[in-house]
Amino acid sequence: MNDKVDQYFSKERIHHLEQLSALLRIASISALSAHKADMGQAAEWIADALTQAGLEHVAIMPTKGNPVVYADYLHSPGKPTVLIYGHYDVQPVDPLDLWDNDPFDPTIRDGKIYARGASDDKGQVFMHIKAIEALLKTTHALAVNVKFCIEGEEEIGSVHLPLFVEEQKALLAADVLVISDTTMLGPNAPAICYGLRGLCGLQIDVQSAKSDLHSGLYGGAVPNALHGLVELLATMHTKEGAVAVQGFYDDVVPLTDDERKELASLPHDDEEYRKGLGLPSLFGEPGYSTVERYMARPTLELNGVYGGFQGEGTKTVIPARAHAKITCRLVNNQDPVHIIELIEEHVKSHTPVGVTAKVTRFDTGRPFVTSFDSAAIRSAAKAYEVGFGVKPYYMRMGGSIPIVEVFDRVLHIPVVLMGFGLPDENFHAPNEHFSLDNFDRGLRTLAYYYEHLDTI
Amino acid sequence: MNDKVDQYFSKERIHHLEQLSALLRIASISALSAHKADMGQAAEWIADALTQAGLEHVAIMPTKGNPVVYADYLHSPGKPTVLIYGHYDVQPVDPLDLWDNDPFDPTIRDGKIYARGASDDKGQVFMHIKAIEALLKTTHALAVNVKFCIEGEEEIGSVHLPLFVEEQKALLAADVLVISDTTMLGPNAPAICYGLRGLCGLQIDVQSAKSDLHSGLYGGAVPNALHGLVELLATMHTKEGAVAVQGFYDDVVPLTDDERKELASLPHDDEEYRKGLGLPSLFGEPGYSTVERYMARPTLELNGVYGGFQGEGTKTVIPARAHAKITCRLVNNQDPVHIIELIEEHVKSHTPVGVTAKVTRFDTGRPFVTSFDSAAIRSAAKAYEVGFGVKPYYMRMGGSIPIVEVFDRVLHIPVVLMGFGLPDENFHAPNEHFSLDNFDRGLRTLAYYYEHLDTI
């Protein structure tokens, strides 16, 4: 690897961590409208960082939602153009009391930086900016052309990005798309991801009486919205753990024997996995291994259920309203909108007597699978070897980056998913963090990648 | 009825409503420890009102929880002594956004006073104080001896009152216990209650992983605390609406044919009842009428269920913790502690794979049934006839006043449950209110009752 670049990262390390901390301090939670101002602030921060890195045509481009930050450096005519995608928005932080530090007050402990967005995805976006910066500051040139497209709505399903990509097709034109928003398989086990699950989400609102009722005066004679919701939700899975919504699995492309063999070869130990998560036991769809279940099988997950009294002690109330938030992870060829329709049908046919149930649809994203036999991916594998000293694995990811499928469909270019997070870094949960060891190695991996991608 | 007393109520009406409003402004929520200071303030308010009414030996008597307010007027030797019980604590107010006014800013609309505690039970306690006051101020004597015992923990199961009653047995000795904490059957349909349901409560805490997990990275391979809780809760009732906990009904004394005939004679119309509550349909234990279900059959009710994300939109999280709050209404001869044990057994044997479930027990109260053929009850019926112009019904109540069973057991005196609330006045729910018409008639009913009870 280029010594000057390596020295640049070493010399700038403290400065880089200060900069990353400043970015992590911005509470850019896209799901909560109260954080609208933070979204703008985060976009500006990214734009400033791109400018300081030496990129050009830096622009905060409006959408009907949060803006997209664009920048480019196009001084290598005849060489490939890399489009770098990432996001500056983060997940909500509740339950706040389970965090060991304020989620927006980044704290370094045991070689890890703790903050919401540390790994998903601010930390990884920051690394791409710094990799380009290091090359520009030390070699004063880039071997490839680069374009950045950093959005602010990934955590709410990239609501406005598909239209943006369609409209800005020419601006975003490139030869390869690179994204760091997936994880490695484990410490010192980097991985290139060739498949992502899709996503659809909905909310169910159950209502019984027009208002809450006293359980003494009415109890026994009237329906309870919570009973109705609980009974309805319990019908959505079999006791064994499969999804029980009719037609849910109909469009799933079965795993081939070859792919099952490959997934079985990934380093994984059920008992270690169970212990690491503090679980009494593992649980999931019968007939599939743990790795298959979280990488390559679809799910229906309750993300939130609530109704009635949540305070200390008891309240003898019959709740009139109860709510459930559900998201599904989907695999090829499930269609997210069709899956929502199937769930709506299920809700309609399973709503218990005495209550009504209303469904509100949320964001959707299609699943994605690509071939991992492209020059761009082979280059990424080589870069990992240099940065980490080991060959990367090829894996599918259970997570969803719905926009990947849009880029794939609109721009028709190979997609390289090279992540640097670890699966246990609490993406979307309290105490999200990012390994500084992987941060350091990742910077070098990316710099090497951008320096050698001209050989595509 | 005594004209002077009648005129007193008319003259003082505005003043009385101002006083009642002052009491209702005190947020004496016993379930929430943040309201500790309000509990003391409410006790002092009651003590002051009793003093101003002309009562003697007014005392705020400590317990290990909230204090009991005691007062008496014992100047009729040889005449009966009436013990008046009520409570100055109120239920929590959430969901706050469903209230049309601040629950602690009493508002009069359409002849009703809206505030938490308006009918349960501050309004009714206030009426007893004012009935005695009216007699003392106008006739300067009482035909009976009276003792007040107003507690501050009824809404949390009268935790410390049983011990207080045992210890103060001599102080509280009386010939009859009068309580206004039940309801009438409907407008212009006063009722004397001869039975109350018992109560037990518990919380179930379900845990899966040690922390929340990302539904993309883990979804499908790990248990979800909400799935576990929902599946567990769904086993607690049959689809038809009966409680499915083994042994739950074993100790229930079946309704006699006579009692079923009597309950069937109460004015009730299912369709009107359903419409009034805004329900798609009624629902309850098969084989029983609506009136039987809410007056004389036991229940198991979900009062609160919560876990995971409750904000706007979606959050793709697998919640690690989920919670349910449950209370049961019980009838003779169900033992509240035994019922909790049965539910604990049920939880143990129905906890789904992959999660653990912990049960925390809350307050209990035994059910109560009395004969309605006592002189004290016949006097109450006569007083209703004078105050309301109609004979009262005799009914059982689905609610629980656990302390009634304690008074019954320790003091061995007849209990008269004469309520003035209406069933649709939103006890324990948003927009609790109290009819001022029933307030006015009730004052006269109570004054008549205390004036003529010497004929027991």
From TrEMBL, chains A, B:
<dbReference type="GO" id="GO:0009014">
    <property type="term" value="F:succinyl-diaminopimelate desuccinylase activity"/>
</dbReference>
<dbReference type="Pfam" id="PF01546">
    <property type="entry name" value="Peptidase_M20"/>
</dbReference>
<dbReference type="InterPro" id="IPR011650">
    <property type="entry name" value="Peptidase_M20_dimer"/>
</dbReference>
<dbReference type="GO" id="GO:0008233">
    <property type="term" value="F:peptidase activity"/>
</dbReference>
<keyword id="KW-0645">Protease</keyword>
<feature type="domain" description="Peptidase M20 dimerisation">
    <location>
        <begin position="194"/>
        <end position="352"/>
    </location>
</feature>
<dbReference type="GO" id="GO:0006508">
    <property type="term" value="P:proteolysis"/>
</dbReference>
<keyword id="KW-0479">Metal-binding</keyword>
<dbReference type="Pfam" id="PF07687">
    <property type="entry name" value="M20_dimer"/>
</dbReference>
<protein>
    <submittedName>
        <fullName>Succinyl-diaminopimelate desuccinylase</fullName>
        <ecNumber>3.5.1.18</ecNumber>
    </submittedName>
</protein>
<dbReference type="InterPro" id="IPR002933">
    <property type="entry name" value="Peptidase_M20"/>
</dbReference>
<keyword id="KW-0378">Hydrolase</keyword>
<dbReference type="GO" id="GO:0046872">
    <property type="term" value="F:metal ion binding"/>
</dbReference>
<dbReference type="InterPro" id="IPR051458">
    <property type="entry name" value="Cyt/Met_Dipeptidase"/>
</dbReference>
